[in-house]
């Protein structure tokens, strides 16, 4: 009789421990946020504000960074359905319009990622005062077999798009001709890093 009681208890413990294993996930389809990134070997640090629309397949990135001793600022708009990438320069009201041939890629934990650990941001001493975060490690595969390793920290993430006009190019870009796709360029959200 005791064995009949222990079997369901053991099975429920096994199933509950398996159910608590963290699984990689995709981001919400509409997302805005900020990230900082460091690409080892390139001495490149980047601070970005981004808007991400998986429904319309659009990405807008405002990035400022430092590579070696040089600082840079980039405003990019990727319209994957239209097949166009914009590099926007408001200071002189110009833009560079380039054909975008790459497929849209969803933001998410890479397919080969492995779970590192969990940590609580904020306080874990009171209910609702902290946020449990899963940390993953993996590689982001770019096109043509290139693999890029970088360290990125996402923060200030907000589900939804505050201003949908962020995906509309400025009027001074209307008359600009589309240039052929570059060999290396803004092919995806991750390549903007």
N-to-C CA distance = 62 Å
Helix content: under 10%
In terms of structural class, how would the helical and strand content be classed?
Answer: mainly beta
* Strand fraction: 35-45%
SS elements, strand count:
12
Note the overall shape: globular
Order of helices and strands: HEEEEEEEEEEEE
Question: Number of helical runs?
Answer: 1
User: Uncertain segments of ≥5 residues (pLDDT<50)?
Assistant: none
Architecture overview:
This protein is mainly beta and 193 residues long. The protein has one helix and twelve strands. The chain has an eight-stranded mixed beta sheet with strand order 11-1-2-3-4-5-6-12, with no helix packed on it. The chain has a two-stranded antiparallel sheet with strand order 7-8. A two-stranded antiparallel ribbon has the order 9-10. The protein starts with a helix and ends in a 14-residue tail after the last strand.
Could you give a quick summary of the protein structure above?
The chain has 193 residues and is mostly beta strands. 9% of the residues lie in helices and 44% in strands. The strands form three sheets. The chain has an eight-stranded mixed sheet, with no helix packed on it. The protein has a two-stranded antiparallel sheet with strand order 7-8. A two-stranded antiparallel sheet has the order 9-10.
């Amino acid at each position: 009789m005791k064995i009949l009681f222990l079997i369901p208890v053991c099975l429920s413990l096994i199933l509950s421990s398996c159910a608590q294993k963290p699984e990689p996930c995709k981001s919400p389809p509409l997302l805005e946020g900020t990230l900082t990134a460091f690409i080892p070997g390139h001495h490149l640090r980047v601070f970005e504000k981004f808007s991400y629309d998986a429904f319309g397949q659009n990405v807008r990135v405002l990035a400022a960074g430092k590579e070696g001793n040089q600082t840079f600022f980039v405003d990019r708009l990727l319209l994957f359905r239209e097949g166009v990438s914009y590099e926007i320069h408001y200071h002189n009201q110009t833009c560079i319009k380039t054909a975008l041939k790459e497929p849209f890629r969803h933001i998410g934990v890479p397919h080969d990622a492995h779970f590192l650990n969990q940590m609580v941001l904020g306080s874990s001493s009171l209910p609702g005062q902290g946020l449990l975060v899963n940390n993953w490690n993996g590689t982001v595969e770019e096109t043509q077999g290139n693999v890029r390793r970088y360290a990125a920290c996402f923060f200030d993430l907000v589900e939804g798009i505050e201003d949908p006009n962020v995906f509309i190019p400025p009027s001074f870009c209307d008359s600009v001709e589309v240039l052929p796709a570059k060999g290396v360029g803004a092919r995806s959200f991750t390549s903007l890093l």
